[in-house]
Amino acid sequence: MTNPIVAVVLLTLALTASLLLGGAAHAQLPSGFAEHGIAAPVGMSAWGGTVATEDADASRLVFVKLWAGGNSTYLFIDANTGETEQIHPGSGLSGLGAYLVFLSPENKAYDTMGNWLLEIDVPTREVRRVGQIPGGMALSFTMDSAGVIYAGIYPTATLVAYCPKTDKFTDYGQMHEEDWPLYLRPLALDDAGWIYGGIAIKAAQVVGFNLATGERRAYIPEDQRQQGAGNVFRGTDGKVYASAPGWGHHALHAGEATPVDKPTVSADRVTRAVTHFPDGSRYTKVDVHNRVMHIMDAGAEEPREVRFDYDSPGVGIYSMAAGPDGKIWGATGLPLRIWRFDPQTAQMQNWGLGNHGGHANQMVRQGDRLYGAVYSSGSLIELDPTQPVDDAPIQQSANPRHVHGYEYGFGGNPDMFGRPHAMLAHPDGRHVIMGGNPARAQIGGGLLIYDTETGEQSVLKPDVLVPEQGINSLAALPNGDLIIGSTTAAATGGSATATAAMLYRMDWPTRLVTHRWPLEPATSAVRDLVVGGDELVYGLAAGNRFFAFDPETGRLLHDEEVSAYGALTGMQAPRTMAIGPDGGIYVLFRDAIARFEPGTFQHREIGRPGVPISAGIVIHENQLYFASGTRLLSYDLGPVQ
């Protein structure tokens, strides 16, 4: 039976794909609603999803597994002309699927989509389902000397194999078991019938599996395991060499592990480099976002630019904010694109941040600048709407300008808010606050306070906040104090220890937490917070709970499960509540927009667009903007009463 954490991972993947696919074009919206188009009609290659190969006539071909929102397709690009052919993997196969593909010497690519291991015959474009997997996706592939393809499946660490010669698929079961999602990568085979894999992230492990007997072994003693990843590679001597944090280096053969110094044995590569065509020429860049690639022809001194095109339903909108220029700005994810919609001209534009594959989970306006919180680096970026937007890597971009995060490396800010859930433009007019969960494996989120005037920044670590919980929502009281809503969820690859999310208050001048209030009955997350004109705190909590809280007395004044408008919605920073120009609290649910009355807590439906609501919320000139997957929509709130 699949354990509960794995089930949550699989459900999250399915819901993400569903939300992004939910933004499909529709014939007519109900009265009051308007659609403004796809924010960013682009895609990106899956990590490890671009391979140089050749077509049936031996012409050079670039094969790309193309991600575009909740859709994945296969793109075949002629390296000489840029002509393309794009095919869908088949009915019922959607979502992101595997993060990489494997190209065999027979010019067949292997991938996982839905619950299937797929074989894509590159010359014929035929896609076959060759074996069913237990959900999830392949994060690793390898091949033995007989041509059998092996894949390691996340999040269950399941090992599957397919033999093209006999058309036989084998599910070997789990190579290892834990109560947290398992990253099984890479895989390597020795010459004695054993296959080995690295396990990440919460506690690194190296595991072995006897393909003949089914015997499993885990090599790192429990008291030596550290956070990180196990690594394995096959040497040219037929042994497998393994390493992991705190465990050192070992040679693995016939199931036995022997400590060694850092190996000098070269890796035994089972296929040629993915950047090289069979004739030895290569690609030096494939920029899927901007539809251009560079080909280094044989004997050439400089690469040749080749333009290509493809169809895309767009990529998911994660965040949005009203800019000082009267335009609606926002960001998408996978890839991260900055988009802008002009309500006056109805023009939509988008720009990239180079090859950054993450997403800006939230954007806020402070003064004449916009600020974004970026997954998974825990970066804070600053955008000047009056200047051109760069298309450069995030560390080098002049606009948006990177103001916090990367310089600390993966061991710094990503361990406190690499998955940023909350941002706030403080009412003092100069500070921006960002918080969230760690990017990987850790528990306990930190808080960044950034002074937009001086550039001064301070980080409050989890031990002075709530050590075992992340930050999920932020609001400011009229005197400047912060009200913070937490989440018990662990970072990706980890497992939670806390059982009840809470509200807590931070004194703004001293930056000290003065009160902590667990929500009762217990909830896993405080999803969003706003402060009403009556100075009460209104919020949404997991379980479709709408509540009102008095920060002066610590009393919960109202707590109601609201189910009439669909499930709670929002992407990784679920900002779905906003105070309207009439003083009402407008809330996005998956199916409808609702208005809640401060003080009386009464609520009513404002509108139901007929498509899933996935992100938001911006109220600008009495128009309420929100996203449905890849598309920007709005609702006319009408004249202020």
Looking at this protein, list some descriptive labels.
Methylamine Dehydrogenase, Chain H, 3 domains, mainly beta, four-stranded antiparallel β-sheet
Describe the structure in your own words.
With 641 residues, this protein is mostly beta strands. It has 3 domains: 120 residues, no CATH class; 104 residues, no CATH class; 263 residues, YVTN repeat-like/Quinoprotein amine dehydrogenase (Methylamine Dehydrogenase, Chain H, 7 Propeller), CATH 2.130.10.10. It is built from 2 helices and 52 strands. The strands form 13 sheets. Strands 14, 15, 16, 17 and 18 form a 5-stranded antiparallel beta sheet that branches. A 4-stranded antiparallel beta sheet has the order 1-52-51-50, with no helix packed on it. It has a 4-stranded antiparallel beta sheet with strand order 2-3-4-5. A hairpin with a 5-residue loop joins strand 16 and strand 17. The N terminus is likely disordered.
